[in-house]
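Sequence, please.
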């Protein structure tokens, strides 16, 4: 597969080049030359295949000839000892993406990315530095994914005081080849600093640089797999039993699946990597009817879908902090593949306030015995708001409604517990809380970052 830049179509690079570079030289994002359809036999058995096999089939065409099949198979097996259960809650399905080691969906992308980097750089002697800007969960997932990988070190930039204490421990508690910078600014500042550092000729001469943000194709593509797996099961009218980390109150019934057919997914979105991966899965042939682009008050994309005008703005802090993004980086990739009209045919946007987020967390726990984290609550509520406005009917023909749950509620206990009571804590989070965070504070200036590197 060849990859091109979103900016001027420049590039024509391999998967290895696109993944290891992160950003295209012209500042654009790499996109594959095509989004290949699943083979018929795969498409018709998405509802019954093992998660690892779906991940293998999803990623394979994008890395063809560069990562041999047996290596890819080994990678997906070691990356995904956990899966993404689709569990019923109330009148919908929750796609739980938090059963990995950092309890957020970013484990799916980061764990594959780290393994592919290690393989693609085999035999290289010059060490590599991976830069990553995080609004909370990316940093932890990337740190965990790359921890102990020889020849690669990671620097995580996060907005000081805007991530939870647990997230900070996940980012800055590992040490060894992982270092953390607490930036005096917003997530957008962190992202800007990473982009500037990657473009810095001087720095590039000194070290091999890459970025691990969701702009990286090696993180994006594996995320398409959980959409395909969940859509296949929803279409077949099947759900999964609760897993170890499923945050359901004792004794609460799981409810039953309502209907079958092509699913509509509500996707809590910030940088829009997750939703873009969903669009890839749909284009590959996964039985998906539509998407809901669910945001907090950082409503750049819902406004664009409504008006056709794309206006970025400074990000505003909310309860769903991992979605506090005013200038979503993957929008450039979405619009490289789809026009406004095409997006509107399959995506409806809705934004949710903090007040609505709180009410949703409280209500879903009280009525259905299910705990939502603030991000997933945005996804849940956005679907309700569209339903009330009847906008959803325009894109959805009566199939099941799925909400992506992007993080475990125990990661945001300080918000969730006052509203919903004590949240059961999964083992991986209890372990992370025991670590001490060790980071360096820097102002939001490129000179400070360059000096730290
Ligand atoms: C990163 C993140 C999001 C936003 O995902 P994007 O791919 O950036 O749109 C949503 N929820 C949680 C918990 C996250 O960590």
């Amino acid at each position: 597969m060849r990859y091109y830049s979103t900016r001027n179509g420049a590039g024509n690079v391999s998967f290895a080049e696109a993944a290891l570079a992160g950003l295209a030289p012209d500042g654009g994002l790499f996109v594959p030359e095509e989004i290949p359809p699943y083979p018929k036999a795969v498409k018709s058995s998405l509802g019954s295949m093992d998660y690892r096999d779906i991940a293998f089939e999803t990623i394979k065409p994008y890395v063809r000839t560069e990562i041999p099949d047996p290596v890819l198979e080994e990678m997906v097996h070691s990356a995904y000892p956990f899966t993404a259960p689709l569990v019923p809650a109330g009148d919908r399905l929750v796609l739980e993406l938090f059963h990995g080691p950092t309890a957020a969906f970013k484990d799916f992308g980061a764990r594959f990315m780290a393994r592919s980097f290690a393989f693609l750089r085999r035999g290289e002697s010059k060490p590599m530095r991976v830069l990553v800007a995080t609004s909370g969960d990316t940093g932890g997932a990337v740190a965990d994914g790359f921890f102990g990988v020889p020849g690669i070190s990671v620097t995580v930039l996060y907005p000081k005081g805007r991530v939870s204490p647990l997230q900070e421990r996940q980012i800055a508690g590992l040490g060894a080849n992982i270092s953390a910078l607490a930036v005096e600014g917003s997530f957008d500042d962190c992202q800007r600093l990473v982009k500037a550092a990657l473009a810095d000729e001087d720095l590039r001469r000194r070290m091999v640089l890459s970025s691990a943000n969701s702009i990286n194709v090696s993180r994006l593509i594996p995320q398409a797999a959980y959409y395909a797996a969940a859509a296949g099961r929803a279409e077949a009218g099947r759900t999964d039993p609760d897993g170890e980390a499923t945050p359901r109150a004792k004794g609460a019934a799981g409810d039953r699946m309502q209907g079958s057919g092509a699913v509509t997914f509500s996707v809590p979105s910030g940088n829009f990597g997750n939703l873009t991966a969903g669009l890839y899965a749909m284009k590959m042939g996964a039985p998906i009817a539509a998407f809901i682009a669910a945001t907090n008050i950082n409503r750049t994309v819902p406004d664009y879908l409504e008006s056709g005008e794309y206006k970025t703005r400074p990000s505003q802090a909310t309860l769903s902090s991992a979605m506090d993004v005013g200038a979503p980086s993957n929008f450039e990739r979405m619009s490289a593949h789809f026009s406004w009209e095409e997006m509107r045919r399959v995506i409806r946007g809705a934004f949710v306030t903090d007040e609505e987020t709180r009410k949703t967390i409280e209500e879903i726990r009280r009525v259905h015995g299910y705990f939502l984290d603030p991000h997933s609550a945005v996804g849940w509520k956005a679907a309700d708001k569209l339903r009330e406005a009847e906008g959803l009917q325009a894109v959805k023909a009566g199939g099941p409604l799925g909400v992506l749950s992007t993080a475990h509620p125990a990661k945001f206990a300080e918000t969730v517990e006052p509203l919903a009571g004590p949240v059961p804590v999964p083992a991986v989070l209890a372990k992370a809380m025991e670590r001490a965070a060790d980071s360096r504070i820097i102002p939001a200036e490129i000179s400070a970052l360059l000096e730290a590197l």
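The CA atoms of residues 374 and 441 lie 27 Å apart.
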